[in-house]
Amino acid sequence: MGQDLDWLLSPAVLGVFGLCIGSFLNVVIYRLPAMMQRQWIADCAAQLTQAEDLRAHAGLSDAQAQQAQATGQMLEAALGARPRLGLAMPPSRCPHCGHALRWHENLPLLGWLRLRGRCSACSAPIAKRYPLIELLTGALFAALAWHFGPQPVVLLWCGFAAALVALAGIDWDTTLLPDAITQPLLWAGLAAAWIGWTVPLGSALAGALLGYLSLWSVYWGFKLLTGKEGMGQGDFKLLAALGAWLGWPMILPIVLIASVLGAIVGIAMKLRASLREGRYVPFGPFLVGGGLVVLFAGAPRVLGWLGWA
Question: What 3-state class would DSSP assign to 48?
Fold first, then answer.
């Protein structure tokens, strides 16, 4: 960019922009899993209404198929009566009393501080995670501006970081890593490499392949040995996307860093008796952490840590 416009990509400006994006990411983290659940129920309901398929493939009797069809129709009617749910609609509301947030209450970080962390209508507490997500996204955008300097490619990396924040938040809450984010992130990484904005295309392709197959192999090896699933399949896609953006040499460092971070957090949660039911910790947030560490440290330094430089 011309020097007279460099300020637009300065850490201060991108930091403020990141606060605004973080406010949107809060919506994505909260609503996208709910939208997915609704869609899965709708898909199940549609399948239940196919009485002939149920008789042919599930072995149901005519009476059972009709009962299932009635259940499917009931679900479709119930879903149809629910208010529309999307990322833009309905407007943000207090989950306790339904108070629609006014524009100044929705300002990133400032709105939460002005309200002192409580709903203006019912005084119910507003979770601290909302301003924390905004602060994290703003800090990441500012750090990326400092790391890459005032060049347009920094906006690409800001998009990368925003997607990772959303994925980490969703996985932590629900153990889901939505294809609606992981797949575009993977393809965007390959496209950026093809254009020449990130790593060489060959490294990006190998990174996507190695990232997916490495965790896929661990998943199936663990399942064959124990009969249990040790991780979700969304982790494969997330690591593939990280490989597409950061290149194949970074796959092992990302996994090692993620494993260390996961072990530390898992032990801390176990000592505090805060592990959720099933005593598991989702791996996605730690893959995100590993990817961000590698991004900011840079490939030469990371390879030096492993003695590969």
Answer: helix
